[in-house]
Design goal:
alpha/beta, single chain, 9 strands, 6-stranded mixed β-sheet, globular, 2-enoyl-CoA Hydratase, Chain A, domain 1, catalytic activity, 11 helices, 261 residues
Amino acid sequence: MTATLRTEQHGAVRVLTIDRPEAKNAMHGELRAALRAAMTEADRDGAVHAVILTGVDPVFSAGVDFKRLERSPDETGSPLDPTPAAVVRAMRKPVICAVNGVCVSGALEVALSCSFIIASERARFADTHALLGVVPTWGLTALLPRAVGVRKAREMSVTGAFVDAEEALRIGLVNHVLPHDQLLPYTLDLAARIPGSAAVADMLRLYRSGEDLSLAGALALETTSSIGRTYDLTAFTAAGSKASARQRDHRPPASDEGNSL
């Protein structure tokens, strides 16, 4: 935990909360370093099955703090410097972004790097790089069109226009939209359903590796990754029974009806 990043543990779920409300949760050098370190630590911790990233109200993050451009000790100013977004993309565990308010530019790049995004009804998204006269370096031009389509991505990037939560859901930028007070409880419930099995990391790797392949290539990748794998049939049967019981017992929040992809 640092003065700008809160860390909490809820069972097997690690919650990271950006805490710089006086600066709209903008990411200065200290916070960027803290985010990278916290993600790396969570990825190495066997007790952590999933990570939630959120911010202190009323915003998620205004992106990079252009008023405080000092670098952290491991940053040189090169485009090859480690970034929070790159560390998130390298995670072997699911990272769920719980966007509680405005999410702009660098923060949008971090959100897009997460496994999926859950949004409060107050969430708003924008890419303001062009308005500031700078070009993205954390992956936005690769990630945004994959989420919303290239035409919508171009429009967002060259105009800087905001997309509200409902439009974000409609265009595929987020997975769910929740009433603001239900955002974190819902996201915690969702994260708690993620098992701690090695299969989760393998599936995330297959999705990541297959994203730019043809259908045939992605199918071949899945087949190749299965060669040589062995399964304990007794354990597999027990896990199947446990999963079935878990699905029968789960009751999603009523507020989620009709507002998810």
